[in-house]
Structure formats: C-alpha cells, structure tokens
Amino acid sequence: MKKVKILLLVCLVAFSATSCFDDMDDNIIASEDINDFAWKAMNFVYLYKSEIPDLSDSRFTTTDEYTDYLNSYASTEALFESLLYLPNEIDRFSGIYSNYFDLQNALSGISLSNGIEYNMYYVPGSETEIFGAITLVLANSPAENLGLERGQIFRAINDNNLTLNNYVDLLSSTSYTINFADYNDNGTPDTSDDDTVELSGINASLTKVSYSENPVHKTEVLNVDGINIGYLMYNGFTIEFDDNLNDAFGEFRAAGVSELVIDLRYNGGGSVQTAAYLGSMVTGQFTGEIYSKLFYNENLASNDTDYLFTNSIDGGGSINSLNLSKVYVLTTSNRTASASELVINSLKPYIEVVVIGENTVGKTQASRTVYDSPTLFSDTEANPSHTYALQPLIAKSTNVNEELVPSTGLVPDIVLSESVNNLGILGDINEPLLAAAISHLSGSSRSSNLTTEASKVIKQLSLPISALQQDMQID
C-alpha cells in the first residue's frame, strides 16, 4: 500500500519561510508565529483549499500584506476557524489544539474518564428538565468498579436536578456524585401517561482518571437455532489495539462463527488502516483487492492512496479472517461516524451489509495531525516554542467504486432506535438491536415483541460531540 510521502515541495523545505509567495521580498515571518504556521499548513494540506479564497496561493503579494492579514485575527483559533469550508454543513470536523500532547493521547484512546457514557432525555412534560441513562460502562473503569450498569437512570448531579442550562457544567466536573432515579412508563408505549422521573435515593461518587480504552469492548459467541453468531462491540479504530481486534476474530473463527454482528453504535471512528484490517477480518476472500481509497487536494494528489484487503497486520501476525459473505452492523445517529462508516461503505461492493439502527453521522473525510515542523506530519522536529497542532480534513474516503459516504449519513436497512425504557444488556440475545439482527439472519419473528417495546419514543437531546470523537485518522 502506498504510504503518505514526506512533503519536500520547495515552499515547505523551510516551512517557516515565505518562498511560496510570488513577488515577495526576502523577509521571513518569525517561525514562532503560530498564525503563520496555521495558515501555511492549511494552505498546503487542507482538503477544501480550493474553496477558500484566503488560502489561494496568490492571495498575498507582499510580506507586509500577509503579516497584516495574520495580525488581524485575535487568536490562532479565530484564524483557523475562518479558513474552514462551510463549518456548519461540510467541515464540521477539523480542529485546532493548543497542546498536541493531549491530542496525541486522545487519538491513542487515552482520555480523562470516569467510565460512563450516556444519553440525555427530556423529562416527560418538560422542555427544560432532563435526565440521563447510562448506555455504556467501560471496562476496568471507576464506574465498573462501583458496579454501575447500562440502563441506570440518573436525574441529578450533586443533588442538583439536571436542566438544559446546567447539565454540561455538572457532568464536566472531574468529580461528582451521580443521583439515580426511577422512570415509570406505566407499562404503555405512550409517553403521555408517563410519571415524573423520581430520585431513588441511590447515589454514586465518580472521579475521572486518565483512562486507556480497549475498544474491543465485548465479544460473544451465541448459538441460536444451531447458528453460531459472533457479536463484537467495537468502540474505536485504535491502532494500539489492532492485535486485540484480531484476537477477537481468532475466537470467532475457532468457534465456527458463520454469522457476525458488529456493534458500532458508539464508535466514532479512528484509524483508516485499522478499518481496512477489520474489513479483511470480516472477509478474507478479497486479499489484494481495493478496499477503500483516499483522495487529497491538488497539492497532495500524488499521495492518493488505495487501501487493500490484506491477510496480515503490519508488524504483526496473520489476520484471522472469517470469509463471510454477509455482516450485520448496528448504528446510532449521533455516534456511528467516519471509520465506522468507511467499513460499511467499503464492504458493500463486496458482500451484503445489513445495517440496523439509525442514520449514521455522515463523515467521509479523513484527517491527520499537522505539526509546526518541516515535514508537517511529524512531531520529531516540531517548533519547540509552542505546542499547537492542527487536525484538519486532508482527504476524502471512498469505496472501490469511488462512492462517498453522504453528508446526511448512511441509511439503515432496518430502522430501530435505542429506548430508554429497554436498553437491554449488550451482547444478550434479547437486547433490541441485536435481537433484530438475529431475527433477520435466522428468518424468525422472535424479536417482534422486543422491537415493539423499543419503539417507545422519549424526546432525546442531541449531545455535543467533539471533532476527535468522530475522527478518521490517517496513520
């Protein structure tokens, strides 16, 4: 597979110089000028450079003009944001970070976490009061150590009832006490007769710690009607855990799995290469064929890359492939993004992909960390005077047929939403989304009652998701 080449264009050999600008004098913008770094980086690598007039190579004719432009912004963040293409529609994902050490940790799956993930809902009858439901408890986390479970409902933090105005601040604290509650739906699918969410008197004190998440959250081999079904909850395409992912498929292969359900409902993405490995683990019969493609802007067009189905992990062992001709994928609308969507989009030309859940996020672009260094993509020679780095969109991902993931997301084959009153146990055959997959693959109607129960609609908040939580990273 072709790797991204080291950038040796004349205008970037000395990255702090202004030699890219025609008719400029020999003055040099100070290398410590972070605005200078941000503009030059975006001018060279940004996927949508041609759409931004201020990034044109002919935008400035003198050094003074360029300097005045840089100084017109109150901060580097303001400059960076001014260079994004349709940030509310197309580029919702590029980011700038003042400390690239924190960025590197986040991309490696290391974050400050107490181990719970949750959805937020409106209290029935209210437009301001809200409550939460735990959707995921991370392994070996403070939350798991306290025995917290998926499906638990909480109404307050530190005895303060949650509202639209306070929930972000309350849940952002490093330490807090979570106040649990009971939700009574009166046993009907209609929300109009639901009772108020009442505090139960049960509490738990949580503290966030530096946490490294193994994205292989859960694996199960389920035997249903004589069919061996593999279930994998996979929460992030993190290269540091590629061997763990491969080991999971080794377990599936040893168990004679003939059907597979991949749960990507909380997977915002990650490594493009890991996504190619996952596709190769699902299949195995297409080794050497094109899995996905990356296309860069005009400056980096020579780096356009084909990712191939492969039978080995770089620097590791052989891939444990299942040679399947069909796979089931579980999705949610606000969390299944980027590399997760790449897997669905890239497998579809080769095998049947049955998507169950909600429309995905709609992110077809990939990014890479850009440092203030001569080669941009390496931190080994980064400017020691600051720790800023960019995470801009630099390429678009397609499948072998050069089809993009639409910005509106991928539409599921079976539409089914998680329900606060019936989240179920992940990996259990009665969990509604997994039950729908089992029903489809076995041709039974066993999930009809479950899907009816899960159809109860309680108004849900759209929680803020950071760009890094929906990243598709070029390694």
Task: Break the fold down into its secondary structure elements and pairings.
Layout: H1 10-13, H2 34-45, H3 63-71, H4 76-82, E1 95-97, H5 100-107, E2 110-113, E3 116-122, E4 130-137, H6 142-145, E5 153-157, E6 160-161, H7 167-172, E7 175-182, E8 198-207, E9 209-212, E10 216-224, E11 227-234, H8 242-254, E12 259-263, E13 270-271, H9 272-282, E14 290-296, E15 305-308, E16 326-331, H10 339-347, E17 352-357, E18 365-367, E19 370-371, E20 389-391, E21 393-399, E22 414-415, H11 432-442, H12 448-453, E23 472-473
Parallel strand pairs: 11-12, 12-16, 13-23, 16-17, 17-22
Antiparallel strand pairs: 1-20, 2-9, 3-4, 4-5, 5-6, 5-7, 7-8, 10-11, 14-15, 14-21, 18-21, 19-20
Helix pairs in contact: 8-9, 9-10
Characteristics of this structure?
475 residues; alpha+beta; Pdz3 Domain; 2-enoyl-CoA Hydratase, Chain A, domain 1; 3 domains; 6-stranded antiparallel β-sheet; 6-stranded mixed β-sheet; 12 helices; 25% strand; disordered N terminus
